[in-house]
# Entry
Amino acid sequence: MRSSILDQNTIMYSTKNMFRFIILFISCVSASTLSAQLSAYSFDDCTFVDQSGILPPAIPTSDPSCDCGLVADGLYFDGNNDNMIFPTEIDSLMESDFTISYYFRFDQVSSRTDLLSVRSECALDSFLAVTYNPINDEVVFELAQNIGNIQTQNVPLDPNVCWHRLVLTKSELFYSLYLDDQLAVTILSDGIVNFDNNARLTLNNSPCLAVNLDRFNGWVDEFTFYRRALSATEIIANSLNPDKITTNDTTVVAGSPVDIEVGATCATGFSWSPDAELDDNSILNPTATPSITTTFALMIENDGNCNTTDQITINVIDPNDLDCANLLLPNAFTPNNDQLNDRFGISSKFLIDELEYFEIYDRWGGKMWTATSKTDTWDGSFNGQSVNTGMYIYKVKYTCTGQEFVKVDNFSVIR
# Structure
């Protein structure tokens, strides 16, 4: 049940809740991302406080409701007066590099809708705005350095997604918009955008509401502000993956179980298909033991107004067809943070019953990396530094169907 939370906006988290928050973020983000974190308005326990304790609470100028969020509680904006204004301290920080990230889900939207803005008035001078146009199902990103230099980019929004993630980064003069963890567009400003002293970072409170915008109607959760521009890899790494199956397609030997994991959700209903070879079809994270190659589909229902689906394919191999000596690894990889072929690991994991070690050496015999889990992968670094382009050697000792095997070969690092 939704409840009023306006009177709680200055209540700080208890020690217990702060500890829960810290554990959550350590599990979600890398060390470098965590060190960049400045403010996190999670809206858990129906409060508006910055969980880092650095900044003052955000200010709701109406009365948004407390409702189900992706992680504990979230906010529901009614589309009439509900909105959120963030403290002035964030506005000054936006003169330097930054990242803004939050999740949202529409309820009822029929006209152009305000999502996020930094502006003091509905004029064409020094502002940043993100809006949604339901007619074309697209997000509109606007950046104005001054009256004569306004840039606008329209990017499609996936209609098959319920919970969307909006990420906005500034790196020097480059302003990038990410939608659902994918880079949507980058705008290069001709110079520094000096926002008016009265401009505020707001959700659903643009000065243009009286002119050509409606207020957002729907759910908002997990608003985070970082004091640097996160990379595309970091954005993906700390995603909550709402309503998505996070377990990758895989290959197993017949009879082997696969644990299926699903990201954060506020689902009010769901169903699996097929469900006969799941250990429990009434839970979101079942274990599958298919006898043949099977694609499992998950349908998630959100509050009756949005359904979304995802799927995972589990390829099944007959144990009589195994070639235990044919352990497969790539002959090259490109660790350049473009999200393609960025890590080096074992492809045919299904061959391995037990892994004694997986080691990587440079061409002079120096050990660069080692692992004892068949799912571990190498990122192309040694002691925190990227290794040079060139030839490297891997050595894998493992057990398959009760026999020990050692695979040694070379591969290339390409940058």
User: Anything to note?
Assistant: Residues 322-413 form a domain with the Immunoglobulin-like fold (CATH 2.60.40). The chain has three domains: 3-237, 250-319, 322-413. The radius of gyration is 24 Å. The CA atoms of residues 110 and 134 lie 6 Å apart.
